[in-house]
Design a protein that fits this description.
Layout: E1 8-13, H1 28-42, E2 47-52, H2 60-65, H3 70-94, E3 99-103, E4 112-113, H4 116-124, E5 128-132, H5 142-152, E6 157-162, E7 167-168, E8 180-181, E9 183-184, H6 186-191, H7 199-207, E10 212-216, H8 222-227, E11 234-236
Helix pairs in contact: 1-3, 5-7
Length: 237
């Protein structure tokens, strides 16, 4: 077996990763498919942390359109991430993968409070750790939470899971002539205004020299190929 290049990774999932074709809610089949991809690499001894969004349940922008207070809308989104985190935890544990959910907002009845050293210890003990509730602060996205947790966990790589096989100069679903980038620098992502993650998350990864890989998680074998250091997706450093 090829030697794995990355031993500890942080996987960033959007909430939409867990919804079905209707684009809303939690689809059990989709959750199980995502979990099976995580299990593939977990079984090889890779330490996996996950940050998940809530776009399948709630988008703060909707609340803002209705005149809702921004902080309130963001807190609602954080609660949505906890629902997704619990769904993912349940699917992983049914597959025999020990999992811990840690919340940036204290809710002891359903999740452990986020404590950095405890999270690292869970990873070292061979548990998948799912970080819910974003950073615990309004005005920050789960993209930023992923960048922050990656640096706190000393992750070797941030993997941004999408349903596209990398970063393109325009939307490949709308433009058949869109050009895929095999590799980018963080400065290029910012200058070209490529919608990989939000500006705060990109700037944080750039400052702390955390590499990122954007790939299609639903392309079977792509995650394993990435961890082996093979050419897949778009690498950003």
């Amino acid at each position: 077996m090829t030697e794995l290049k990355y031993k500890r990774v942080l996987l960033k999932l959007s909430g939409e990763a867990l919804c079905g074709e209707n684009g809303y809610g939690i689809d059990v089949a989709e959750v199980e498919q995502v979990s099976s991809r995580i299990k593939e690499v977990f079984d090889l001894g890779v330490q996996v942390a996950v940050v998940i969004g809530a776009g399948n349940l709630w988008r703060g922008a909707q609340g803002l359109d209705w005149g809702m207070d921004r902080a309130t809308a963001d807190y609602m989104g954080m609660l949505g991430t906890m629902m997704n985190a619990l769904a993912l935890m349940d699917a992983l544990e049914r597959m025999g993968v020990p999992t811990r959910v840690m919340s940036a907002i204290e809710m002891r009845a359903i999740a452990e409070p986020y404590i950095r050293r405890r999270a690292i210890r869970h990873l070292e003990k061979g548990r998948v750790v799912i970080f819910g509730a974003g950073t615990g602060n309004p005005f920050f996205s789960t993209d930023t939470a992923a960048a922050l947790r990656a640096t706190e966990m000393d992750a070797d790589l941030v993997i941004k899971a999408t349903k596209v096989d990398g970063v393109y100069d325009s939307d490949p679903k709308k433009n058949p002539n869109a050009v895929k980038y095999d590799e980018l620098t963080y400065i290029e992502v910012l200058n070209k205004e490529l919608k990989v993650m939000d500006v705060t998350a990109i700037s944080h990864c750039m400052e702390h020299k955390v590499p990122m890989l954007v790939l299609n998680l639903w392309d079977k074998g792509s995650l394993l190929s990435a961890l082996r250091g093979e050419n897949t997706g778009t690498f950003i450093r």
